[in-house]
Structures are given as structure tokens and as C-alpha cells.
Amino acid sequence: MSWALFTCEDPAVWRGVEAKYWAVVEAKSLVKGKKSGKLLTLDRWFQLELPEAIAKRPDRYITLPELVKLMEWKLTRGKFRPRLQQLVATNAVEVVERCSRKAFTLLPDVLAAITELSSLKALGPATASAVLAAGAPEEAAFMADEAMESVPGLGPIQYAAKHYALYLSKVTERTKALNKADSQSDWTPHRVELCLWAWAVANQLQLPLVRDFNLKASLNDTSDSDTDHRPTKKQKTK
Predict the structure, then answer these.
(1) Of 204, 50, 18, which is closest to residue 136 (Cα–Cα)?
(2) Alpha helices (H) in the chain, listed in sequence order
């Protein structure tokens, strides 16, 4: 089930899943352990307001307050780790702006940009990828666990630049395929990642979304022989 969307080649299905994204975020924000509405508010900020703020600047960069809020978004979406929230706030204002500005100038070399951002306190490849996805969605995708688990052939999740490179390469391949099949040709790695996340979370929460699309053909492609490639126990974030 988890690979069904990724292996689907119909852009209409992807657009249908994308249209349900905010409903899935809202459902996720209401699950046990999450403050009602907090994730939805933070996600709207990350997906809509932050990209606009970055785009308006003469040189793309992120500010310290934005980075702190981005970390809050990431931890609210996934596993909350108070220590990371505290540590990211200890970065100097000027260092965050200088480092993030340089990272964006390194694009389209995404790995070089990830390495540059990872020099900041509390930033690993996953958080760094979030910064790039917000400011350069046409180049990068956020390293979300749910999205990675929805991509066949990745193996166990590793929070390392090399694993991110493999994940991004597969997401980029799917992006190109969708743009070739879709007359609008407006897909980006970040949009593909958002769809994969929505599909995975809808499955986890058993939302009606999974029944709205006919992906039986894709589901039948997943055989027992693929088991060795399925994500297994996750490694601790560094």
C-alpha cells in the first residue's frame, strides 16, 4: 500500500491526492499527542508564508526566528525533541543568515547546500532539506519519514546526506515523469513529496482518501520479492 502512489503514473491521481493535502494535515493535527490545530497552523506557515518571505528577498536566506519556527514545525509534524528546539535557537542571527544565503547560492548542487546548512547547530540533513524545500521547491524535497517510506528501493531510513541524495534522485525522477505526462508540467520535487506524505499519513490514519483513488494496479506490483527493499528500523537522527 505504501508504494502505490509513487508507482502511479497518472497525473490526475497525483493532483487528486494533492487536493486532499490540507484535509490530511488537519486530521494529523488532531491525533493524540498533538495540540488541536497547532500542526495545521504551522504547516500553513511553512508551505505558504515562509516560501513567499524567502522569495521576496533580493538574496534567498532564512532568518533565525524563521529557522526556530521551522524546527517547531518539523518536530510537531514528527517526533518532538525539546533539546533540538532549544539548541537551534542558540545559533547566531548573522550566522544563520550568512550560512543560509550561501546554501541557496550553491544550488543546483543540493548536497553542497545541505552540507553548508548542516554546519548550523541542531541542523542535520532532514532540517536542512526543509529549509531548501521552502526556498527552492523546484530543487529540493523535504526529507519526511513518511515520504521516504513511500519510495521503493530506499532501504532503511538513514538521516545522512548520502541517503537524502538517493531519496531526492528518485523523487526528481518521478517529478520529471509527471511533468512529461501532465500538460501543465508544473510538478516540483517538493510537491511530489507533499503528495507522498499525504498518501502515507492518510493510510496511517485510515482516512477515506485511500479509497478515493483506484491504485489497484500499483498495489499489485508490490510483491513478496520486494520485501528486502522495504524500510525497516529507523536510525537515530544525528
Answers:
(1) 50
(2) 11-19, 21-29, 38-44, 50-56, 64-77, 82-88, 93-106, 110-117, 125-135, 145-149, 161-181, 189-204, 209-212, 216-220
Per-residue pLDDT reduced to its tens digit, 89-120? 999 999 999 999 999 999 999 999 999 999 99
Cell (9 digits) for 5:
502512489
For residues 190-201, give the mean pLDDT.
96
Give me the sign of the Cα torsion angle 142, 109, 106, 186.
Answer: negative
Which three cell numbers mark 159? 538521516
**Identity of the residue numbered 175:** T
Question: Which of 134, 135, 190 is closest to 167 using CA atoms?
Answer: 190
pLDDT tens, residue by residue, 133-162: 999 999 999 999 999 999 998 888 899 999
Closest CA to 28 of 204, 192, 223, 237: 204
